[in-house]
Amino acid sequence: MADRVDALFFFLLAVSLFISLLVLVLIIAFSIKYRRRAPNEIGAPIGGSIKLETFWMVVPLLLSMVMFGWGASLYMSMQHPPPQAMEIYVVGKQWMWKLQHPEGQMEINELHVPVGRDVKLTMTSEDVIHDFFVPAFRIKADVLPARYTTIWFRPTKAGRYHLFCSQYCGTNHAVMGGWVTVMEPAEFEAWLAGGPVEGSLAEAGERLFQQLACNNCHASSGKGRGPSLVGLYGSTVRLQGGQTVIADDDYLRESILNPRAKIVAGYGPDMPVFQGLVSEEQVLQLIAYIKSLAPPLAAPGQPGTAAESKRPAGEAKKLP
Amino acid sequence: MSTAASVPALRHENYLNVSYGVKSWLLTTDHKRIALLYLVSITLFFFLGGAFAVLIRLNLLTPQGDLVSAETYNKFFTMHGVVMIFFFLIPSIPAVLGNFLIPLMIGAKDLAFPRLNLSSWYIFNLGGLFTLYSIIRGGVDTGWTFYTPYSSLYSNTHVVATVVGIFITGFSTILTGLNFIVTIHTMRAPGMTWFRLPLFVWTHYATSLIMILGTPVVAITLALVAVERVFHLGIFNPALGGDPVLFQHLFWFYSHPAVYIMVLPAMGVTTELITTFARKKLFGYHLVAAASFGIAVIGFFVWAHHMFVAGVSPYAAMIFSILSYLVAIPSAVKVFNWMATLYKGSVSWATPMLYGLGFIGLFVMGGLTGLFLAALGLDVHVHDTYFVVAHFHYIMVGGAVMGYLGGMHFWWPKISGRMYPESLGRLAALIVFLGFNLTFFPQFILGYLGMPRRYHAYPPEFQVFNVLSTAGASILGFGMLIPAIYFVWSMRYGKHAESNPWHLPGLEWRTQSPPPTENFEVTPVVTWEAYEFAPRAESEVIGRFRPELERS
User: How many CB atoms lie within 10 A of CB A273?
Assistant: First the structure.
């Protein structure tokens, strides 16, 4: 992605250099060639030219449409993470970054990732707006309270890269940063294996699910007071009133914290509000758990890669 | 007021010597005196904002930010932005030069609502006092953008006082815009048809539209921030059920067009400068006039290009990107028409022209780097970095301030009746141009390398460019002091100005320098087109102009 951004940058740089040099040279040339020689001198009586005006409206317009198209296509690929990307959850707060791997590793102001693997970040903030910015990867996205934003990248070279907060967030904004460490896959495996981990993110979510007694109503049989959550993630949910919604991260977050916002068709507004009772990290754990509740039978005939994307996030799976 | 006292009595009565004493200034309804009152106010704010800029640059000399603490630094850049934008750039050209010149240019005695004009100045200063109060009480640290929920909940500084100050000042902008529009519609002299108006008037008309339509939105938005802060009503804070991105939409709905409030009048000044000092009819008058309206109208529909990484829908982002490219076209048209005006002209390199040419160069760079920021995939990388800081300083300082300085030099003979020192003026223009580029060009590189804006401290590899930028800032600051000093000096010691030192056909040059209170002794009748340079322009002077007095 960095190469593609740089290519667009250099294209724009070339066009800009050409135009600014043209303007500079013409201004200087005209000012010298037509400098005033006699105090009473008057310039030639030229009022305008439709042809010239049209020319310098149409050419910049066409050029700028190329810039628009190029920039937009780049942006679209930035907006759509590849389906098998490894998922990292990010919580920003004044003034630190908390990053969670699906395997359960928790990092602060540091992110370890392997070379050559797509990485998708799902991010939210506990307080004000922050912004996750890694200049080396040419990626940036605001991190907002009460909703999730995502970005993705694929590191191509091992090394340590700056991580900055680039949305002003208060006193220590300038030091709310850290490092992204890109490792060779084998090293990354070793790193993942080391360090104390109390189970995966989804397992933590499962424990929380029982502690908060969610399982009392959300029984997997589908006969509880609440709907079953098995296979919910990514599916289309029919709501009271006939509307539908895709069960994505934002929907799950809202339904946990403020369940009355959207009520599933056929159920009552019985669920208590969890706003203020669970932290952003706990919400992410619960979502990771709900994601791991894949339908009992994966649709037969699907290629392995697609199945992998639905793997329970917590399974200690060997990375390619 | 010292401005009046320092001008010795000329042999003929004019707006400066018609009466003396503080009261005659503070209660004046003369648009020319009000323009000077504004000049005093905004100059003070300019030096206040400039002082914060100096402190910012000094702090950034070292990576650790040794000069001040992070907390203080955050207040410095906030107050630099608030003061410079709301209390200098937005009023600068319209409230000083526009106020002074629009009635003169269209052959009117005053603006349509002279007392409203004076109240605008009082309202402006009242707003300024609130902001000064918040600065003295310890300042504000939200950034001039006041992003929620930081500003509405988390900041522990004087957000409300600052916001109230901006809210109040907004009314002075609205009233000035209203005054201009009514004046231009109803008070043009006989024969001054719409297409005989100088482009300066056209750009001020377009600017006034933005002032009237945009300013209420930012005023209400900032009022909502204060309401949420004081009464905890959930508007922008998600914890209270609000939406933080809503604030950004509302804020930029005004604050993007506000850039055009700053730069359109500067374009008007530049147009006057280029055609005057090339002594040639403006190339493509109608198109240049129309371009101002193109910019004003499209400028209202590009606001979300400030929000490409704020989690907006990618499809909305595409619309705003394409509109941002469209708004660049009328700006390009203006630049090309200025260049074509130079072609086969009779180009003089007087000080105002140097600022005019400097404006074109810097505005082109500011505009072209805007194309980088409008490109969606590229904006993701450079958004909120020093690339953006450099870009908007090229537009606001390189554009608006250069235009303001050029205009001040150009009309100074009319305003003060005195000439500024020409060679010192050219030297200062050159120093400002070089200092400006040295300050802000390195910031483009810094931004692409990834240095985020609003950083009190930064990784050591960015230091080289920061040192260059600080060095440039000291040259720029020095260069800006020179005109401030010689303008004051010239009020007493400058050469007396003729009524038409640049030999122009425009109405403001067909009355004495400085003009009498009523501007013209008899209402002028316009029989010529704008920028009609002809030898007869000099002799065909109407109104109160008396050549025998000019030789004194």
Answer: 12
Does B348 contact A at CB distance below 8 Å?
A: yes
Specify whether A291 is located in the same domain as A265.
Answer: yes
Question: CATH second-level architecture of B28-550?
Answer: Up-down Bundle (1.20)
User: How far is CA A80 from each of CA A117, A121, A150, A317, rounded to the nearest angstrom?
Assistant: 15, 12, 9, 24
pLDDT at A213: 85
The pTM of the full predicted model, rounded to 2 decimals, is 0.89
Number of domains in chain A: 2
Residue whose C-alpha is closest to residue B150's, from A145, A255, A163: A145
Give the CA-trace dihedral at B244, B246, B251, B256, to 10 degrees: 120
Contact between B100 and B82 under an 8 Å Cβ cutoff? The reply is no
DSSP for B464-511 reads HHHHHHHHHHHHHHHHHHHHHHHHHHHHHHSPBPPS-TT---SGGGSS
Residues in B touching A15 (Cβ below 8 Å):
368, 371
Query: What residues make up the domain containing A305?
Result: 201-309
Average pLDDT value for residue range B105-109: 95
Confidence of residue A296 (pLDDT cuts 50, 70, 90): low
pLDDT in tens, B25-35: 999 999 999 99
Rg (CA), chain B: 23
% of chain B beyond a pLDDT of 70: 95
Q: Above 70 in pLDDT, residue A115?
A: yes
Same domain for A236 and A153? no
If one counts every other C-beta atom within 10 angstroms of the C-beta of residue B146, the result is 27
Residue B175: is it exposed, middle or buried by C-beta count within 10 angstroms (0-12/13-18/19+)?
A: buried
Asked if the structure places residue A72 within a domain, the reply is: no
Q: Give the B window 171-190 contacts with A, CB below 8 Å.
A: none
Query: Which residues share a beta bridge with A97?
Result: A92
Give every strand in the sheet of A110-114, ordered side by side.
A110-114, A178-183, A159-165, A130-134, A139-143
Spatial CA neighbour of B39 closest among B92, B117, B101:
B92
Where would I find the H helices in A110-200? 185-193
State yes or no: pLDDT of A267 exceeds 90.
Answer: no
Residue from B60, B384, B456 to probe the interface with A (highest A Cβ count within 10 Å): B384
A72–B318: do the CB atoms touch at under 8 Å? Answer: yes
Of the residues B150, B270, B334, B338, the best mutation for testing chain A's interface (the one with the most A CB atoms within 10 Å of its CB) is: B150
Q: How big is the CA angle at B152 (ends B148 and B156), to the nearest 5 degrees?
A: 115
Number of other residues whose CB lies within 10 A of the CB of residue B217: 20
Task: Supply the DSSP symbol for A103.
Answer: T
B449-459 burial string, b = 16+ CB within 10 Å, else e? bbbbbbbbbbe
- Residue that is last in its domain, among A167, A193, A219: A193
* Residues B455 and B522 sit within 8 Å (Cβ to Cβ): no
The tokens describing A222, both together, are 């589908």
Of the three residues A140, A162, A193, the one that is the final residue of a domain is A193
For residue A301, give the 3-state DSSP assignment.
coil
For residue A177, count CB atoms less than 10 angstroms from its CB and return exposed for 0-12, middle for 13-18, buried for 19 or more: buried
**Helix pair B351-374, B386-395: axis angle to 10 deg:** 140
Contact flag A36-B348 (C-beta cutoff 8 Å): yes
The helix/strand/coil state of B385 is strand
Are B505 and B282 spatial neighbours (Cβ–Cβ below 8 Å)? no
**Residue A114 — φ and ψ, nearest 5°?**
-85, 155
Residues of A in contact with B385 (CB under 8 A): 135, 166
What are the residue ranges of helices labelled H in chain A?
2-33, 50-79, 185-193, 201-211, 249-257, 280-292, 304-309
Residue A93 belongs to domain with CATH number = 2.60.40.420
pLDDT, average across residues B540-550: 43
Q: Are residues A186 and A206 located together in one domain of the fold?
A: no
Q: What is the least distance, in Å, from the CA of A310 to any CA of chain B?
A: 26
